[in-house]
Design goal:
homodimer; mainly alpha; Arc Repressor Mutant, subunit A; two-stranded antiparallel sheet; 7 helices; about 5% strand; DNA-binding
Chain lengths: ~170, ~170
DNA sequence: ATCTGTTTTCAAATATTACTGAAAACTCGA
DNA sequence: TCGAGTTTTCAGTAATATTTGAAAACAGAT
């Protein structure tokens, strides 16, 4: 193996390992993040077995996390003609990755929060004590803010990257 | 206990429980989120023992998570004159909560990612193969985007709520 | 200096989450 | 319809994260 190839392998391995560690702090499981890193930096879409081998993980694990990445929309399944098995290709465009992650996190983190806040505000609507009103107000304020944040996230996700950059440069 | 008080207690308990569950998906531990919910809706700042009792948790657990909330800046320690023990008061202003969480998540999630990307881009700088260049470009693009996102987060966090609203209404 | 109520620490116990390995269920070609 | 290659599932196991409980440290009050 040439010097250059070795260097590249080292850099890539580090990226995979570190991205995995980061994933953990992001509330994403380590393996899923590692696979994502691997696919993002793969010259050709790997198969399940390639992933298993590179990361030294079991078939079940590789399969589950690849499926999860596909469910997020961060990875596409590719079928090659004449090949039975599936290959996996990561989205590499940073703005697309960003909008996908933003949408997904909104769906998982923001929408359920809104639901909770709405229900709590509703349930405390009619409580006539001072404490009751304070609680109701708190729920309402939180709910309105989260609603606002949610809308903003939608708007930004729907933008083209160029437009976002342009807007940013105008404002800041 | 009056009807109204019971209703309120029920609503509050639900909020605490659900906020705790949400916290989990946010990558925040359940107890920390529950305590936060409890404090946000407390008419008076509770003591460690109050928290222990309300949530039925151990002293060590209550203590650790209260400290963590204080470290985030979401909770303040209050000392009452003539009282030896400490009471804990949550920040209730939604915009402040948002900016604190944004800052903290940036510090924990974005900054380390930037660091990794920068190092990988640097290490692959000099690799002259096609694959090497592709890897380097990928790292650079990711890095530049994360850098951009990071700056935006800073700017937004530094805004006054009114200004943010105004800006939002102008743009969307 | 000692006592008392309180906070802080941390090793051990528990709970949660992720992973493995192997078997079952597909899929397509012959 | 059968069989080889591949994907999917899942019960058991391993790894990780959280919580407990009890002891140590601390800070006034006497």
């Amino acid at each position: 193996m040439s010097e250059a190839t070795q260097q590249l392998k080292a850099a890539r391995d580090e990226f995979v390992a570190q991205w995995g560690a980061l994933g953990t702090q992001w509330g994403i499981n380590r393996t899923m993040a590692q696979i994502h890193a691997l696919l993002m930096t793969a010259p050709e879409p790997p198969s399940t077995d390639d992933v298993m081998e590179e990361l030294q993980i079991s078939r079940g694990n590789a399969h589950t996390n690849l499926k999860e990445l596909v469910a997020w929309g961060l990875v596409r399944v590719v079928v090659r003609k004449g090949e039975r098995r599936e290959f996996f290709e990561a989205e590499k465009d940073v703005w697309k990755i960003f909008t996908i992650v933003a949408r997904e996190r909104k769906r998982r983190e923001i929408d359920p929060a809104l639901e909770v806040l709405r229900r709590c505000a509703e349930e405390s609507q009619s409580i006539e004590t001072a404490e009751g009103r304070a609680f109701h107000d708190q729920m309402k304020q939180l709910g309105e803010f989260v609603e606002f944040a949610s809308r903003m996230a939608d708007k930004v996700s729907a933008m083209k990257y160029g437009f976002a950059l342009q807007m940013a440069s105008k404002f800041f």
